[in-house]
Amino acid sequence: MGTQQILLIVLGVIIVGAAIAVGIQMFNTQSYSSNKSALAADAQFYGTMVIQYYKTPLSLGGAGNDLMRNGIDVTEASNNVGSFIGWGTDNVYYNNEDNEVVN
Fold first, then answer.
1. Would you say 63 and 54 are in contact if contact means Cβ atoms under 8 Å apart?
2. C-beta atoms surrounding 62 within 10 Å
3. What is the pTM (predicted TM-score) of this model?
4. In whole numbers, what is the pLDDT of the chain averaged over residues?
5. Using the 8-state DSSP alphabet, how is residue 94 labeled?
């Protein structure tokens, strides 16, 4: 082989290697961005559920526009909100397709 053929092979290997490295970097960036968006969507969902609990009347199992009713401490209020959202009060956290069950 001549030096031109070897030079073209080396140049081709370098270009293919750089393209693979750029592709991997783009995939990792997209994965990070997707996870960040999923976390933001979950936080927005939880916030919406808390507002829904706050505005639901007492007769329907909500807070009746008062999270800290007379005689209720912070722990009981947080347990009420958690059970309304669906978390329960036995330290089992909400599970969806974005996360795993954490005990």
1. yes
2. 18
3. 0.58
4. 80
5. P
